[in-house]
Amino acid sequence: MGEMLSRALVLTSPPGALAPETVQAARALLRGRTIIEDRWLAEREAWETIFVVDEDEDLGPLLRTAKAAFREAPIDVNIVPDDIAYRRKKLLVADMESTIVGEEFIDELAALAGLGPEIAAITARAMRGEIEFEAALRERVARFKGLDAAILDEVYARATLNPGAETLVKTMQKHGATCALVSGGFTVFTERIAKRLGFDVEQANRLEIEGGKLRGTVAEPILGREAKRAALERLAADRGLSLTETLAVGDGANDLDMIRAAGLGVAFRAKPIVAAEASASIVHGDLTALLYLQGYARDEFAA
Predict the structure, then answer these.
(1) How far apart are CA 79 and CA 67, in angstroms?
(2) What's the pTM value of the predicted model, to 2 decimals?
């Protein structure tokens, strides 16, 4: 046998959807195991139990069984490491579009420009990993050549924050973490969203504008899949953190490398290719589920 480790089975849901009977069923799945702690993180919304495993044990079968048991309910089931020194992460790197905000801004821009279906099809292929993100971005932006730059303000006006975004950022900062918004989108949007939510750092691609018109080009180098991972690694190194102390969250294929590299990589309402690779996946809950995955109880959230 190898070293004995602790793991957390975490159930999260929309408020009020996690029934006590579901928790009882989850406890039954762990029958015969050594339980360290069992608690509600938020009544009828988030619950966890900490249990002991052998370091060589494959928890895949347990996770699949648990997910199958609750697949008819709006419940997210995840198993995460419960290392007291590293469970609460010191660096959050978040994707912006369809993660922190509900929109894909490039698709909103396309809709206003009358290019909706054409651009959306390219976006969808890129997010599924069927074409390289950088090439897809250049192809889409080229179609916007000559548009009045004022249209970007109209696009931003459509922005809606995903539920839990502000609480996620403020709570992690309250407990000493740095929060970074790293997007394959555009600085004209990340700068405003970062300011609105109080992110410490933001990074994205820059649309080139000349004479008040979009040039149809993006400043090089393009921030894509590899650059997102590099940003995670650089931000961690600059703060003297190991990657174990980091959390990355996103929804698209261009987020995969940073999700894989982070100590906790979370797929948030993500494409199947991303959910399959992430160490945790959230489909039903909001962004506060990322706090529950780190062991935060609701009464520890920032106001």
Answers:
(1) 11
(2) 0.95
